User: What shape does this take?
Amino acid sequence: MTTADPLAFFSTARADGVSVRSHLAELIHSLLTSKDPNALEKLESISLEVKAAHFEGAKPAPKAVPTLPPGYVAPEGSTELVPTEGWHKAAKALHKVEPETVEVASMAELPDQLPMFEWAGVGLDAGETYRTYLAMLALKEKHSLLAVRFFGKILGTHKDYVIIEARAPADVHLPPSKVGATPPEPPGVGLNTFCYFVAASAADEFVRLEDVTPEQILMSSKIRKYMTGELEAPVACYPAFPGPEAAYLRAQIARIAATTVLWPSGKFAFDEESEATPKPIIDAEEYAVPEDLTDLGSWVHVYGKILKIGRTTNPPKPEPAEGEEEAEAEE
Assistant: This one.
């Protein structure tokens, strides 16, 4: 049996030119130069430092160019964004709506609410606010909506979502394309009290979102995902989410509304004389503004608590068979 030359074996170099022999030589040179009294304890660390001196990391990748907002371009040599001609035409088309001819509730008067947003240090600029207001009026006329409200704006990695909340007849709501074991709340009830329209900007075409399902509500509370701004984008996550980003967005809107939308405690009451289910809400006859509105007890959530089944109301009880007892309601 022929034994390979040990010197040749230790001198075999890698692609970067480093061999066991050259590494040991550099390691010994480093020890002699430093004369560290704790060289034995630090031998592994010193060896790694010698190896690191030969490491050439890959050149840093070019910085990703940020995605421009829809309807804008960046002229060469300038840092300012310029609206495109198409965006100008779409924004100009909004001005065909005459605000005086569209009747809206006070909560939809977005220009009047702008100062309150500014006091809180949030909100939109004056131009975007007015365009959003005109878009709300256009949606109200186009779909014969009963009421509209600016819900908010969610930022995405590619595009953003401007969200308009609308109280609409049942036939305007889009039913979910896929329903699980638990039926969703009907239009006008619970988490589907309102329907929602979204667009990348007020000058873009608004898209109506489907009503939310209990499965989407429950699963959206178990995952955390950035919005991309693409409604058809898949929601890649574990556990799997039942639907594209449009459904995930709608579920998060429902959860945000259920948690944050408030009204003064005692200002409204259920109409006990009505036989409708759920009972309609009316103004309370005896209501006085509390002295301290900063007290948490002066406010209540508009929506009911989200139950463990992903709804704020229990589904209709199935008629029990003969001899069976009615199922208890979910808490």
